[in-house]
Amino acid sequence: MSAQATTGPINAAPPPHSEAEQTARLKQTLLRDIRRSVYVFRIDSGGCNACDIEIFAALTPVFDVERFGIKVVPSPRHADVILCTGAVTRAMRMPALRAYEAAPDPKIVVAYGACGCSGGIFHDLYCVWGGIDKILPVDVYIPGCPPTPAATIYGFALALGLLDQKLKATHHVEADGEQAALAHPRVPQALRVALEREARRMAGYRQGHDIAERFLTLIAQDDAKPIGQRIADFLARESDPRLAEIMRRLEAICAAGAGGAPP
Amino acid sequence: MFKLLKEVFRTGNATVRYPFAPLPASPDFRGKPQYDPERCIACAACTIACPSNALTMETDAAAGRRTWEICFGRCVFCGRCEEVCPTGAIALSPEYELAVMRRADLYQSAEFSLTPCRVCGANFAPRKEIDYVLALLVHAGVPQAEAERRRAVVETCPACKRAGDVGRVVNLDRLHQMETIP
Q1: Using the beta-carbon criterion (under 8 Å), do A167 and B16 form an inter-chain contact?
Q2: Does B138 lie at the interface with A, CB-CB under 8 angstroms?
Q3: pLDDT digit string, tens, across residues A162-171
Q4: Which fold has domain A21-159?
């Protein structure tokens, strides 16, 4: 670990730690056929501890990563996998590099959580490096804030070559004449706005939007039954008094609006 | 001992089968933001709402392009993009298997074309957004012919509206309104 000479400004980020070709080859072997337990060393490089709680949750009997032989060890000298959480604060950069150096080759570095992957919500803070990959060569990224225990298991399965990667980079280019469809074209615009506003007033911004969407879907669908009956049936299925209260309010708005009812 | 074994068999196995069997996420779980570029109008509301700048939008006015991008590695799954999206183009899904080997796979992007201003000719607003606004006007009860006439106003950039041409454009609109008032 030597200080790299840089020609840029004095506070510019040094290039991330790189690994030798030999090590990279060894790591491929480790990934392909590891025939023993995997020892994980966890570096908390300035995280909020939510990631650490989720790692602990993955060790509990419900998720039980130890059934795959994944074991958390207290020293980097035993580690095969280095699991890094946190956005890499200035203070934790050197300890993280020292822990990386202390682990025997070949080793897999896993960036855990939004902060570990790219700095997350702290990415542009003055006191963080913004992601493990700024200082170490990362092999697997596990996004999430924090990742659930299931996402953790998936990430480890990916790191050890048991499962395939699902997420792929995509790029969409707008096609000629592509149009964004209007939401609920059968419901008058003013009524839709009034319903959404009332639902959001009563249930909060996101849940209110969800409830308004369900209500609009109910009233706009093709059905021989009258709207009141449809809503009553829906509420009987859901049996939630809070939802019933909001839906009845929306129904009243629907009835009050002149010509509010859709065809 | 027998009592203990009885208890063990009564309790059964608490460990989930994941990853050998799928593990469904609980209701209202906030997973990967699912993006539908066909429904996106490139209005940039989500990029302003995003607290961690996982959503970004870059406008290349000279080339007439606007690029929307999400980095799943930076997303904190708060759902604010879903709240503010006027067309429902982005919504959180129960998908949580997001781990990747290459950093480039954490990105999803979409490219949209811009419409030039009728007065100065500079590209300023996404074509889909303008079309959506006019479709919304028609849906709100504005006659089709009137909406087409208003296109001239909508397709003028704010700078040109401010810089004197606004008088001409708005007066045209007002004159037209006076004509239509019986």
Answers
A1: no
A2: no
A3: 888 888 888 9
A4: Rossmann fold (3.40.50)
